[in-house]
Amino acid sequence: MKRLLSAFLAAVMALTLSATAGASQEYTIDDAVAILRYEAGLITLSAPDLARYDVNKDGRVDINDALVILQIEAGIRNPNGSYIPVMNSSGNYVAESYDDIFELVNSNRERILGDRIVTVITEANAADFAPIVPPSSGGGVASDAPASAPAAESGNNANTADDFSDTNNQVEGVQEGDIIKTDGKKIYLASTRTNNVNVISADNGEMQRVALLEKEDARPVELLLYNEDLIVVWNRTIRTNININTGSYSYNRLYFQDETIVEVYDVNGRFNRPISSYVQDGSYVSSRMIDNNIYLITNYLPNMFSHFDLEDYRDYVPVYSANGSKRSVAPDSIVIPENPDSIRYTVISGLDVNKTDMLVSIKASLESTNIIYSSPENIYITSRVYETVDNWNWNWEEYTVINKFSIDKGRIEYIAATKLRGNVRNQFYLDEYKGTLRVVTQVWGRGENVRWGSFGGSLYTLDRNLRTLAEIHGIGGDEEVQSVRFAGEIGYVVTFMLTDPLFSFDLSDPSNPKVLDELKIPGFSRYMHRWSDDLLLGVGVDADEVTGRRTGLKLSMFDIADNENLAERHVYIISSDNNQSGWFSSIAEREHRAVIVSPEKNIIAFPYYYEMYNPDSRTEPNQ
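The structure corresponding to this sequence follows.
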């Protein structure tokens, strides 16, 4: 052990000293050396030194504290331990004051409104707003409340001994919300049609509703489970009646704004009221849960039809309510993108369900998001931007901006951003492996003799600071990317025009990715799932090899034992037995949580339907 620590210390010191000679911080390399010698049992430390060297504030002094000090010396972290954001190709930066934000948001608001004059007639729910409490430092986070009795740490399910299914999560250990959850004892079902949550007992296979959760003017969007806690995410729409005068005419209209509510219920209680709750501006985008921490993401649009007052932050900055006190996100917690032309925000908060006051930290970015990917250590949010190449020919290119935030026990830190050409279509187009982010984009555009079309897919590998390590373009030629799946050091990409090429990539060296094989078969997979080390499941569409016309649903089991020699071993096709005009479709093509895959039970389950045009009607389909 002593030799291992000594070797580690020597290597890290050599690397750090060569990169950061002359660095001056609160801590020095000598402090890191002392911690490592203490960890190896070579020295003892006094109580004041133990308190000082507990950099992570976790009640102990170990090698992790030494690592933080070395990262401070290397310029990766600030003296307070937070990561220093990396401003690379995207040009993003962190706001310094509300003045910066007001100037950007208000100018964009005036540009969007033009000469229109807007008058607010009635402002619904205005009485709900208490005076804004000045934000505290460190991201406007409310003071810590006493923690309730912590639940036992045993993963997402309350009773792991029982045999029941879980949500089809993309990343192991990162729970995704869903409209239906079960803990093996009860079934929890969120309905957006009836705007309530049904709690159904499933003891001994007999189902009986034991509770019905409802919230005024709100609809449930997703559910999460942690030990004995049910977490319900609600979306509420606030309506404002406004009058718009264009100069030549005027009209009244309703303006809609959303807020997202998180409530925690004890599954063993009566469900008559939540244990704790939290409210955040914006419409719900997604969430992730790691142990007892929820990361909530919303898109927020300020009321652009109201007058913005510099001193009233809630006019133009997202507001959150923690423990009944409404506050605005602090300016140093808001990321400003390069050339911001919107007034929309992405808001991301870290919550702890074991606390009455759940909020741990909150950040925002002055751009909306549509795709979320999370590893256990980082969350990546993406947004689309369009850049004009040739105004005369109406030629533009689509890019994806990726913002990276580190996450740890509810704490969120902004790390870096980048911009890649193409469109990230869903969360499976991103994957983090051993610190490297792998991204696939679909590229559209114009070219020689091409009015508008696909330029295939692009594969990028990015380092921890989102700097590009390598890239491969033109995957599939002029075909369109249909699905992506990463599995350790291998990546799989499906493209389609008339047939389905399944590509395999060797990503073992992030700086030198290589194409291993290309398998062409009829149809294409819209979703891929690792069945075993040697098999990859594809769920998608069967198609005519000549015309590319969709003929049914198709399940493929690919042999990936040799990624340089891919093969389709088994096929199951769902198609019509007659010549009637119609098609089979499934939500599983676009929603992975609608799929249940259990290799242990040899089960694949997903819903599908057949839609046929009624010959007696030109518009009404039969299902």
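Confidence is low (pLDDT under 50) at residues 1-25, 123-161, 617-623.
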